[in-house]
Amino acid sequence: MSLASLSAPVLSRIVSLSVAIANHAGKIIRDVLKKGELGIVQKENARDLQTEADRAAQRCIISSLSQCFPKITIIGEEGDEESKQISGKVYDPTPESTIQVTCPPHLASLGEEEIVVWVDPLDGTAEYTQAYECRKSGHQGVCKTLGVTCESLLDHVTVLIGIASGGKAVGGVIHQPYYNYQNPGSELGRTIWGVVGGTVGGMPIVAPPEGKLIVTTTRSHSSSTVTDAVDAVCPDEVLRVGGAGHKVMLLLEGKAHLYVFASPGCKKWDTCAPEAILQAAGGILTDIKGSPIPYQASVPFRNSTGVLASAPGQNHAFYSAKIPQHVKDNLKA
Question: Residue 55: pLDDT above 50?
Fold first, then answer.
C-alpha cells in the first residue's frame, strides 16, 4: 500500500491513511444509496439499523487499515464478522490522495501496538434510511412525516475513524459523504481531521454566536432524562439532529455551543473521532458528569454515562455543573 512519508510518526500515517479511506468509504455510501439496494437489517431494536452501506464501508475501512498497520487494534460498530470479510475490499490510495499530518512531540513515538482505532462506518444510519425511503416515495420539499426536507437528512450522515492510545482519544477523522449536496454539479463530500495537541484540517473552525446559547441533542432517542439535562442549561434554541459526528460538526461550524445527551445511547465509535477533533480545535467532550470517556480496547463499548461536548471557547465546567444531580445519578457506569 502506498503511503507518503513512511518515515513519519505512526499516528501521522494512520490519520493520513484514514482521511483517504474515509473519502473512499463516503463514495461507497453514496453508491449504495444511488443503487437503492440498502439491505436493511435490525440490530438491537427498531431504531438501531444496519445497511449494506454500513457493512461495505466497514469492510473497506478495517481491511485497508489492517493491511498497512497489522499491529493496531481496530473495533468497528458492525462487529467482527464484517471485519473478517476483507477479500477484495482493501483500498490502496495513491500518494496524491494522502495528506501530510503533523504529529505533536508527545505522540510522535507511539507504536502500532499502542493504538486502538474505533470505527463507525456510517454514523446516522436512521437518517440515511429515512432519506432513502423519502426519495423512494417521491416526496418533494418538506416531508410531512419527518418535518424536514428528505435531502437534509443526509447532512446527519458521517464516517467516523477515531484513534486512541492510553485510553485517550488522540486523533480522529470525520467524513461527510453528502457535504455540498445543495450545489448540483459540485463535488460531494468533505473530510475533517485532527490530532490532539496539533491542528485541525479540512475546514475552518467557526465560533458560535455570542449572546445566546444553542444546544444540539438527539432527534430520535429523547427521554425525560435527556430533556431535563437540556432544560437545565437554559438554551435559547435546541437543534435536534441525528448522529454524534454531525452534532460535533455543528459545534465546529459555529452552529451550536453545546452538545447535551444524557442517555446511554452512544458508543465509543460514536465519540472517539469527534472528541479528538473537537479537542484539537480547543473544545471539550466528556460524559454528562464531566468525566473523561475511556477508549481502551477492553472497556465496555457503550457510553453509559452520556455525552457533554462544548465548542471551542465555551466554559465546559460551568455547563457540566448545571446538569441536575438526579440526571447524573440516573446514568450509571
Answer: yes
**For 209, which DSSP code?**
P
Catalytic residues: 54, 125
Closest CA to 121 of 50, 207, 206: 50
Measured between alpha carbons, how far is 238 from 259 in angstroms, rounded to an integer? 10
DSSP 80: H
Poorest-pLDDT segment among 31-40, 131-140, 142-151, 312-321: 142-151
In the DSSP assignment, the letter for residue 241 is: E
Per-residue cell: 9: 510518526
pLDDT digits (tens, 9 = 90+) for 243-293: 999 999 999 999 999 999 999 989 999 999 999 999 999 999 999 999 999
Question: pLDDT band for position 88 (50/70/90)?
Answer: very low
CA 104 to chain centre: 23
Going by C-beta distance under 8 Å and a sequence separation of 6 or more, which residues neighbour residue 184? none
For residue 16, give the C-alpha cell: 493520513
CA–CA dist 18, 307 (Å, integer)? 24
CA distance 121 to 123: 7
Distance between first and last Cα of the chain: 41
pLDDT tier at 65, thresholds 50, 70, 90: very high
The pLDDT of 79-92, averaged and rounded, is: 59
Contact between residue 69 and residue 14 where contact means Cβ atoms under 8 Å apart = yes
Strand locations in the chain (E) = 41-42, 49-50, 73-76, 115-123, 158-165, 168-176, 190-195, 200-201, 214-218, 237-241, 258-261, 284-286, 307-310
Count H helices and E strands in the chain, helices first: 9, 13
Give this prediction's pTM.
0.92
* Residue 295: φ, ψ to 5°: -125, 25
User: CB within 8 A of 139, min separation 6: which ones?
Assistant: 150
d(CA 194, CA 94): 21
